[in-house]
Design brief:
The protein folds into 2 domains: 6-48 and 302-416, Aspartate Aminotransferase, domain 1; 72-298, 3-Layer(aba) Sandwich (Aspartate Aminotransferase, domain 2). It is built from 12 helices and 16 strands. Helix content is 40%, strand content 16%. The strands form 3 sheets. Strands 2, 3, 4, 5, 8, 9, 10 and 11 form an 8-stranded mixed beta sheet that branches. With 417 residues, the chain is of the alpha/beta class. The chain is globular. Bound molecules: pyridoxal-5'-phosphate (PLP). The site of pyridoxal-5'-phosphate has 14 residues, from helix 6.
């Protein structure tokens, strides 16, 4: 057996993120018609795709492609993009930011690897610190990025039942304890996997608490404003000196170009820039370059408002309607859909585990994600974690419809036994 370091061993064990990405690879390579309700791939929006083609053509025609592909960019990111984004954030939200507040990475997932390990783990004084998630379920990708054991902890939420088939998780502020070993607090907004959007009031309380305890508040804005703006409720984004806002070009339609964005205080950006230089030399700038003109012209905001948001809202409503049709007679709840690209289904009386349900669905060529992967750092038994599924509604409507129909059939089969 190969002898690894602790670092190697950590990556050698099973993780939900690896399973998710393997499943996505299987969809691409199997040659079978798999119904992909699993991964976080964005949907294909023809108008957006056409715009990226046009930008790519312009980049080739005016020589920018040669400049981008033929040399290393700076480790902080593509300067025209950093300036353009700072301009957008000033214009749109009035934030006091410039290029010194922004760095790019090889995707948000890489941002979290850097940030979690920058803050959590052993301090020079020998104190172990962790990242606190004030609300679970939370994004699967956070689960395994911390290099030290126990580098994440999460708080069980309260559940608000909204109607016969709808619920919403709320932050349980009574249980939220910012102890001295909390290195940073992190929340995705909108939340993957649930489609929850932490309310302005909840976020305001988190901002106040983290400011009081002097710990950074990391806000994962992969689906948020100003882009891709897959947010169906009325909420405001937040930024100040102690917040670290993570953004991405993935859900805009460019996941393969691996572009993550971090907006934070300049000293934090400087550390991230050093990590980029040491681990990557520089990141690829093609994604950043393709959207720079769209940001400068203001086009990106109208595209998100007129194309991206309605595209996902329609899909969300349609997927919920299919659940009502195909889950009839089953005791189920869906999380209130306020953003992102997923339905989060909870089956309180599920007679089999979420993993067994996932396996049975996979055998029928339906990919979903078992709910238990989305409770990183919970550290306590809660049967709820084994009663949920994440269902992506981003892909083609017929796959989503048929996939939900098969989920209904498998649930009924499990309940009937
Ligand atoms: C909440 C959230 N954060 C981060 C990511 C990672 O995105 P990226 O493609 O930028 O690494 C995802 C991807 O699904 C996500 O859903």
């Amino acid at each position: 057996m190969t002898k690894y370091s602790q670092f190697g061993d950590q990556f050698d064990s099973d993780s939900g993120t690896r399973q998710l990405m393997d499943d996505l690879g299987e969809v691409l390579n199997s040659g079978r018609a798999i119904m992909n309700l699993g991964g976080g791939n964005p949907g294909t929006i023809p108008r957006i795709r056409q715009l990226f083609h046009e930008q790519m053509q312009a980049t080739l025609d005016d020589g920018r492609f040669d400049a981008i592909a033929g040399q290393y960019d700076g480790p902080q990111g593509h300067r025209p993009f950093l300036d353009a984004l700072a301009g957008l954030l000033r214009r749109r939200f009035g934030w006091d930011v410039d290029a010194s507040n922004i760095a790019t990475t090889a995707g948000s997932q890489a941002s979290f690897f850097i940030l979690f390990n920058m803050f959590a783990g052993m301090t020079r004084q020998g104190h172990a610190r962790h990242i606190l998630f004030p609300l679970t379920p939370e994004y699967i990708g956070y689960a395994d990025v911390g290099l030290q054991a126990n580098s994440v902890r999460s708080v069980r939420p309260s559940i608000e039942i909204i109607d016969e088939h709808t619920f919403k998780y709320r932050i349980d502020f009574g249980a939220l304890d910012i102890t001295p070993d909390v290195a940073a607090v992190c929340v995705s907004r909108p939340t993957n996997p649930t489609g929850n959007v932490v309310t302005d009031d909840e976020l305001g309380r988190l901002v106040a608490l983290t400011r009081e305890y002097n710990v950074p508040l990391i806000i994962d804005n992969a689906y948020g404003l100003p882009f891709p703006n897959i947010v169906f409720s009325e909420v405001s984004p937040v930024f100040d000196k102690h917040t670290i806002l993570c953004m991405s070009l993935s859900k805009l339609g460019l996941p393969g170009l691996r572009t993550g964005i971090i907006v934070a205080a300049p000293e934090i950006i400087q550390t991230i820039t050093s990590v980029n230089a040491i681990t990557m030399l520089a990141n690829g700038s093609l994604g950043a370059s393709l959207v720079t003109e769209l940001i400068n012209s203001g086009q990106i905001e109208s595209l998100c408002e007129k194309e991206i948001k309605p595209f996902y809202l329609e899909k969300a409503l349609q997927a919920r309607a299919w659940c009502s049709e195909y889950f009839t007679g089953i005791n189920y709840y869906l999380h209130k859909t306020e953003g992102a690209i997923f339905l989060w289904a909870w089956f309180p009386d599920l007679p089999i585990s979420d993993i067994e349900l996932y396996e049975r669905l996979k055998r029928r060529d339906v990919l979903v994600l078992a709910g238990r992967h989305f409770f990183p750092g919970l550290g306590q038994h809660w049967e709820h974690t084994e009663q949920c599924l994440r269902i992506s509604y981003a892909q083609d409507p017929e796959s989503v419809r048929r996939g939900i129909e098969i989920i209904g059939e498998e649930l009924r089969r499990a309940f009937d036994k």
